[in-house]
């Protein structure tokens, strides 16, 4: 039997797909090269944004029409099973806490029987086998969170915080590195909450990971700012230890404290700006990524202006902008929504400010030399990461391949990436 896994959404969802692939492989169920070649298609879904949901539902409707046997997993399976059934009534459902039951669901689906595996239970997903052997490996450290953000449906899908065993996380990182990984991505719904349900924290975990031997780096995933004060000094010290990319993803969501209060975020914009300053004092070259939601229902023009000021003043290296989308189970979906034209206008204005800030930062790298690890190839380009997780793109076929290290000189920059040439080539031209 063969399956094909189509994954939507975040790194945590991608890690769930790796677990499903590992479980299936252990039972002799192999991966097909395409949906058409698969006996059963697994669609691992995301429910964070309405456009993504629409893409997923379109895919499910196509598969249903084609008569494919389908298992729907992920956050949509957990939060919106009724919607899945409407668009794909023949599809089986496996919720996020039932990933370990994927083999049973696939076998039932292959036999033409629809099953719904939706009983909530806490389990340590690192107790299950995962697909390995990639240059970039994703290691989940927890599921669920401690927050109750008014805009978010993911809490409804994944439940309360469930931190996985430190020992198992350490072993998973060792296994990934031992299998050839050059980059290990720690992922969760909220990395900042890791361990707070069992008397530890992310900084303590990082201290353990810092002593693992091997030629690889670890990227720490998104941390909500509300917990950072509990371990800030130890977290910053661990980031400087050489095992980790000097990179922090700290989502502010809005520059207005009033809006942050309405969102139930549990911190102020000033606190986040203060964290930016502390991180940069300790690591002047740190890359800081943040997230911003535009058009929250209670956002006024004054509130939006505060968000613009936050970006101009705090100067995050990377900004993920998202228009507000009313998600069915989120409290904010019951509020009066802003007009679409207002959200679009504000998004465009924020985009201009963000691009100017990011381009200004990235252009300071032109002419510098640095070492990168090549982790991706797309078409005739390859890309790698600096030790501060800046993305660097160069042309493929220049004597470096996936997983290799390369010394490069930065030759150009956009608001999102740096462009480079191998240092040996640049020096040859100068000579």
Largest sheet: 6 strands, parallel
Tell me the quaternary state: single chain
Distance between the termini: 59 Å
Strands of the widest sheet, in order across it, are: 2-1-3-4-5-6
Compute the number of structural domains: 3
Question: What would you call the shape?
Answer: globular
| Strand tally | 19
Helix content: 25-40%
Radius of gyration: 22 Å
Helix/strand/pairing class, anyone?
alpha/beta
Q: Would you identify the CATH architecture of the largest domain? A: Alpha-Beta Horseshoe
Give the uncertain stretches in residue-range form.
none
Percentage of residues in strands: 15-25%
* Average pLDDT taken over every residue: 94
What is the CATH C level class of the largest domain, in words? Alpha Beta
CATH superfamily of the largest domain: tm_1862 like domain
In short:
The chain has 431 residues and is an alpha/beta fold.
Furnish the topology, listing elements before pairings.
Elements: E1 2-7, H1 11-26, E2 30-31, E3 40-45, H2 50-65, E4 69-74, H3 75-79, H4 81-87, E5 92-94, H5 102-110, E6 116-117, E7 136-140, E8 142-143, H6 154-158, E9 162-163, H7 166-178, E10 183-187, H8 202-209, E11 217-220, H9 232-239, E12 247-249, H10 257-263, H11 269-282, E13 287-294, H12 301-314, E14 318-323, H13 340-363, E15 369-378, E16 381-385, E17 391-395, E18 405-413, E19 418-422, H14 423-430
Parallel strand pairs: 1-2, 1-3, 3-4, 4-5, 5-6, 7-10, 10-11, 12-13, 13-14, 17-19
Antiparallel strand pairs: 8-9, 15-16, 15-18, 16-17, 18-19
Helix pairs in contact: 8-9, 12-13
């Amino acid at each position: 039997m063969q399956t094909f896994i189509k994954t939507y959404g975040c790194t945590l969802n991608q890690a769930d797909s790796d677990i499903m692939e590992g479980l299936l492989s252990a039972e002799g169920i192999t991966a097909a090269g395409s949906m058409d070649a698969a006996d059963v298609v697994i669609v691992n879904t995301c429910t964070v944004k309405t456009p993504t949901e629409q893409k997923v539902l379109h895919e499910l409707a196509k598969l249903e029409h084609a008569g494919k046997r389908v298992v729907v997993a992920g956050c949509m399976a957990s939060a919106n099973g009724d919607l899945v059934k409407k668009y794909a009534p023949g599809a089986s459902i496996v919720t996020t806490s039932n990933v370990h039951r994927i083999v049973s669901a696939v076998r039932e689906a292959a036999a033409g029987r629809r099953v719904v595996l939706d009983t909530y239970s806490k389990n340590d997903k690192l107790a299950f086998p995962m697909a390995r052997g990639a240059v970039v490996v994703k290691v989940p450290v927890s599921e669920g969170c401690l927050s109750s953000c008014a805009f978010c449906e993911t809490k409804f899908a994944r439940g309360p915080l469930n931190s996985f065993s430190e020992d198992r996380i350490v072993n998973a990182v060792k296994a990934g590195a031992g299998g050839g990984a050059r980059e290990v991505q720690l992922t969760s719904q909220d990395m900042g909450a890791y361990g707070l349900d069992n008397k530890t924290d992310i900084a303590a975990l990082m201290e353990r990971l810092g002593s693992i031997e091997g030629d690889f780096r670890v990227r720490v995933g998104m941390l909500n700012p509300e917990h950072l004060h509990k371990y800030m000094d130890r977290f910053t010290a661990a980031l400087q230890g050489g095992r980790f990319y000097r990179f922090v993803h700290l989502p502010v969501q809005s520059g207005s404290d009033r809006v942050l209060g309405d969102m139930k975020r549990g911190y102020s914009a000033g606190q986040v700006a203060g964290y930016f300053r502390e991180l940069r004092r300790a690591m002047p070259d740190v890359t800081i990524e943040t997230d911003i939601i535009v058009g929250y229902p209670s956002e006024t023009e004054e509130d939006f202006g505060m968000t613009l000021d936050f970006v101009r003043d705090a100067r995050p290296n990377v900004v993920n902008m998202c228009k507000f989308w009313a998600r069915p189970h989120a409290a904010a979906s019951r509020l009066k929504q802003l007009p679409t034209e207002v959200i679009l206008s504000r998004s465009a204005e924020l985009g201009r400010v963000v691009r100017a800030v990011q381009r200004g930062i990235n252009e300071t790298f032109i002419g510098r030399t640095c070492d990168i690890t090549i982790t991706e190839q797309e078409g005739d380009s390859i890309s790698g990461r600096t030790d501060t997780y800046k993305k660097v793109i160069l042309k493929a076929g220049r004597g470096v391949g996936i997983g290799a290290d390369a010394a490069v000189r930065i030759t150009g920059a956009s608001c999102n990436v740096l462009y480079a040439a191998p240092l040996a080539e640049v020096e040859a031209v100068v000579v």
